[in-house]
Design brief:
This protein is about 80% helix and about 0% strand. With about 160 residues, it is mainly α. The chain is built from six helices and no strands.
Length: about 160
């Protein structure tokens, strides 16, 4: 087993941590915002888990992107040709850019939660920023089609 396979497997598994923590953080944020309830330690924990999971996923992805992935390394060797190929362009540009945007949205939402004047503002920030980030993440995961990857990758 080489480093690429190990990191790709960890990246695949971590995807599920990102998605599960996103759902927990988003559902509780929307419930809190619409229900006018308190921002609790549990909700803060869900938000923190989502932020941490996306951050870990980004670091693993950057290692794959810049150092280990034969797909991106090949794309970097002839970027012009890579931009003409749908698969290469997805991995070299689209996936990474969209995921960086999503992680930025998660971190902005987290900052807005911390600065929220009251519980409603905290719920609103979490609901809006985390939901938009989740949509971007879902749109950028290679679920099916030409960029498909296994849903559960093993070693």
């Amino acid at each position: 087993m080489n480093a690429y396979s190990i990191f790709l497997t960890i990246h695949s598994w971590t995807r599920w941590a990102v998605l599960i923590t996103a759902v927990l953080a988003i559902v509780t944020a929307w419930q809190g915002w619409s229900g006018g309830v308190a921002w609790t330690a549990t909700k803060a924990r869900f938000a923190s888990w989502f932020v941490n999971a996306t951050s870990i996923q980004l670091v693993i992805g950057l290692i794959l992107y810049g150092a280990l992935s034969p797909i991106t390394l090949k794309a970097f060797s002839d970027f012009g040709a890579a931009m003409k190929d749908r698969v290469s362009r997805f991995w070299a540009v689209e996936h990474m850019v969209m995921m960086i945007i999503a992680v930025a949205l998660v971190h902005i939402g987290s900052g807005r939660i911390r600065k929220g004047a009251d519980d409603k503002a905290k719920h609103r920030a979490a609901a809006i920023f985390f939901t938009i980030a989740f949509v971007v993440i879902m749109a950028s995961i290679p679920w099916s089609g030409i960029n498909a990857r296994p849903l559960f990758r093993g070693f």
